[in-house]
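User: Some background: our group keeps a shared notebook of sequences we're curious about, and every so often someone picks one and asks for a predicted structure to add to the entry. Today it's my turn. The entry only has the sequence so far, pasted here. Could you supply the structure so I can complete it?
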Amino acid sequence: MVTNRSALEELLAHELDESMRSELLEAMHRLQAGVREFTSNTFNIRLDMDASTATIDDELDVDRQSVVSLRELRSLLSDQEAE
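Assistant: Of course. Here's the predicted structure to add to the notebook entry:
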């Protein structure tokens, strides 16, 4: 399947369930420094509190990666909760 979606868009559309969303939001809330990593079926998510970034890597396409601010990811995850 060929897609033009970013790794972040694909994660939000197909991989993110309520459990993972809650886990990511809780980690962002609790973790003050350092790095925390999560794995879904086809994505790795790295929360870097020191750099204030989240990196989403696609396990099936090594060239597809998204890097966003933690603030942006928190907002996107919160929007998912409202839906």
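Suggested note for the entry: The longest strand covers residues 43-48. The mean pLDDT is 90.
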